[in-house]
Amino acid sequence: MKHQGFAKKSLIALAVVGAFSGSAFAADSVQLYGIIDMGVGHFTGIAPSNTTAAPGSTASYTGLMSGVVAGSRIGLKGTEDLGGGLKAIFKAETGFCPAGTNQTGAGTSGYCTGGSFMGRTTMLGLQGSFGTVQMGRYFTSMFTNEINYDPFQAGFTGAYSNFSLGIFGLNGDAIGSLLRSNQTITYISPSLAGLTVRADYSFNTGAATDPINTAGNKTTMWSLDGNYAIGAATVGANYTKVSNITVNASGANTGAYKVWQAFGSYDLGVAKLMGIYERGTADYYSGNDSSWLVGTTVPLGAGMIMASYGQYSSSLSNTVALSKSTAKQYAIGYSYNLSKRTMLYTSYAHINNDSAAVDRLGTALAVNTATNSNAGVTGQGSSGFAVGILHSF
Questions:
Q1: Domain holding 287: CATH number?
Q2: Closest C-alpha among 317, 279, 70 to residue 173
Q3: Torsion angle, alpha carbons of 66, 67, 73, 78, to 10
Q4: If we measure between CA atoms, which residue out of 310, 293, 314, 322 comes closest to residue 364?
Q5: How far apart are CA 138 and CA 52, in angstroms?
Q6: Structural domain containing residue 150
Q7: In 3D, which of 255, 172, 261 has the Cα closest to residue 224?
Q8: Buried residues in 60-92 as b, exposed as e (16+ CB within 10 A)
Q9: What tens digit of pLDDT does each residue of 159-190 get?
Q10: Is residue 33 assigned to a domain?
Q11: pTM of the shown model
């Protein structure tokens, strides 16, 4: 009798939950989604984490990664029809570490990507014939282009983000990265004869724990992005400016970092060609930094071959003029779709760092995945190889 009573109560509870869910979501489209990506990666030529290591020494690492192609995540997204062609849209997404957090260069957040709970993407907006207006925390337009016009889509071991200005520009001394922005409002236009325009403004791109920097100025960002598609070709440009950042020796938060970005692709059918170019300048700095990539994807049955070559260079200096330092990367990879939701993959990439420091902090580049961020060693090469599986749901 005890078990029968428990079963009866359980059925009643399920009925109540079902009735509540039906009334709450009757007019809505709500989807639970996610990615679980795990692969074994092997890296050489990375900077040792031991601060007592001899200058110029390198280390190697082999481990199971919580996201080689893409950061593992889980989220909710949905729409509500408000009538008259107007919709409310939302998305809330958090990263997680299916292989554990002891991953080289993955930081200390315990979320592997995003930095905090629901830290990857949190967005609410309205969508209609006028386009889309949204707000929250999400990828910048600059990084979105790096995903769309990189054969490796900012993942694998051959990602453009290993040396792009979206990740590496003024890394450490100013803004950390232009990957995601906080407190952002965005307008995205509908397609106008193939032209789509996006405008972003961030009231404060800084960390939540430091909303106002030491000079009392918030670090703000705005960007304007245009993408034009005609037939098999797409071309576009982006301008991004981050203001009130620390870029001079006095520590005054009055400078700005500005990046121009151009991108394009052409689909030949048997292969797709693509490329990106970025150039950045900073107040109180002489010189500039730049990066570029050319690449291709080649469909092969249920799989795809990816290949790219790119370069990062910098002469930015807030002290004395520097000779332009350079890092070069070549990469190749292959993915195979077991189904619409499950993919096997492998990739290899190598970076050559020249004998000069790559950025103002004396940090060189290294090959990484979508979820780790090792540093390289000046004058040394860095390589990365990975093989794994990705499942989306």
A1: 2.40.160.10
A2: 317
A3: -170
A4: 314
A5: 38
A6: 63-392
A7: 261
A8: ebebebbbbbbbbbbbebbeeeeeeeebebbbb
A9: 999 989 877 655 444 444 688 888 999 999 99
A10: no
A11: 0.86
